[in-house]
Structure formats: structure tokens, C-alpha cells
Amino acid sequence: MDFGLKGKKALVMSSSRGLGAGIAHALAAEGCDVLLTGRSEDRLREVADAINTKGAGRADYVCADLADPACVDALASAVADKLGGADILIANTGGPPPGKMSEVDLSKLTAHFEAMVLRVAQVTDRLLPHMRAQGWGRIVAIGSSGVVQPIPNLGLSNLVRSALVGWAKSMSNDLAPDGITVNMLLPGRIHTERVDELDAAAAKRTGTTPEAARAASIATIPAGRYGDVEEFAAVAAFLCSVPAAYVTGSLVRCDGGLIRSI
User: Fold this and answer.
1) Considering the entire predicted model, what is its pTM?
2) Which residues cross the membrane (predicted)?
3) CATH domain 9-189+229-253 topology
């Protein structure tokens, strides 16, 4: 299938590693030019170099910390300077530390909400004029299976990412007449550094080993394994595609059957 993405321009937030980097690779393979963002210039340069070596879509990067309100102007300026506008936004953010909801330090709630929800809304607002002017755009917000089936010991993530669900669904209704789709893509246990960190935290909490914690996690997944980043990124690329024009306002799961609800 031709995704129709050759020559499109994409801003991929938090793409110096993990799911964001995987999506940037997938979009570039379809001919997109991608702008990477993150806090580590070394990591961003490494991802950009790997994409550019393949010779399909091109990659550039800008250092930005979503915890800093100034990043909104920085990202908007970089999109204008390096891409000339973004046709696609991958709204990806880092995740908060693990912990039970009843034990969360609520003094930190505002900071996580701003970095994970408010920044997404603010960046989207800056990119919309370009999308509206051309009558075409794709916004994919990366969430978590926890917005459907809350994940034990990830209370803060369950809470904050659920706010993004309401934002994405509301935006999808507002933007559909403009030819802009908005969807949320929900990963289950996709094997990234973040998942390794969560397995290590689970092992420490339960007095076992990371390997045992991972085995216990895999036992809850009908597919019997963690997903690959490339599998997840392929779903994201489809949601950004021209053929996906009638898919909007959806929560799309890529979880190997982890979520038990219909």
C-alpha cells in the first residue's frame, strides 16, 4: 500500500529514543521529512544520522524540553525554519515515574500535566494554521493502554494520559471539516528502554529480578511477548497516511491483546 507520504513534513516529539524514534524512522521510510525533538543532542544526532543514511526522507532535530514553556516557541520556530510547516504531528511525550495513585506526590501533578498535555495542546495550536491552509493534516497522540485499563503502579500516567484522550477526541470533532484527523495510538508493552526501566522498578518493588518481572508481564499478554518498536511505528505511519483519511477520533490499540475489554 502506498501511504502517500512522500514529501510530507512531520514533527515527531520526544523522538530521541524509543517509540518516538521508531515512528520517525517509519515516517522517513515512507518519504517524510522529519523533525526530531528531545533533550539529548547526542541521541537526536544519532537518530537523525541513522535516518539520513538510509536516503529516503530526511531528518533534522531541535533540542527541546517539554517541561520548559519556552519549548513551544522553539519548536514552532524550528518547524517553520527547517520544514516550512508541519503536515503531521506525532504528539509523543515522556512518562512520569511509577507509583500508586494513592501515594503520588500531588505537588508534582501540575508539572507532569503541563509537560504531557498542555505542551501537546500548545504545539498543536501553533501547527494548525499550516494544516488548515492546505486542507490536510494528521495528528497522532501517543498514549498508553492505561487510559483504557489502568496499569497498576502507574497511577500518575493513568491520570494524566487520560486527560489527553478527552483533548484528542474533542479536537478530532473540531478539525474533521478541515481534512485533519486526530487519533490516539495506545501502546501496550512495546520493548523500549522505558519498559526495561519499568520492569526494573517492578523487580525492585517486589524483591525479584528484572527478568522475572518481565516474564510475569509477558504472561499477561495473549500474544506471549513484548511488541517490537517497528510494529508499533507501522501502525502510527498508517494513521498518518492518505488512505487513513476516514479514521479520526479513535483510540487505536497496539498491545498484543493486553487490554481485556472489548
Assistant:
1) 0.95
2) none
3) Rossmann fold (3.40.50)
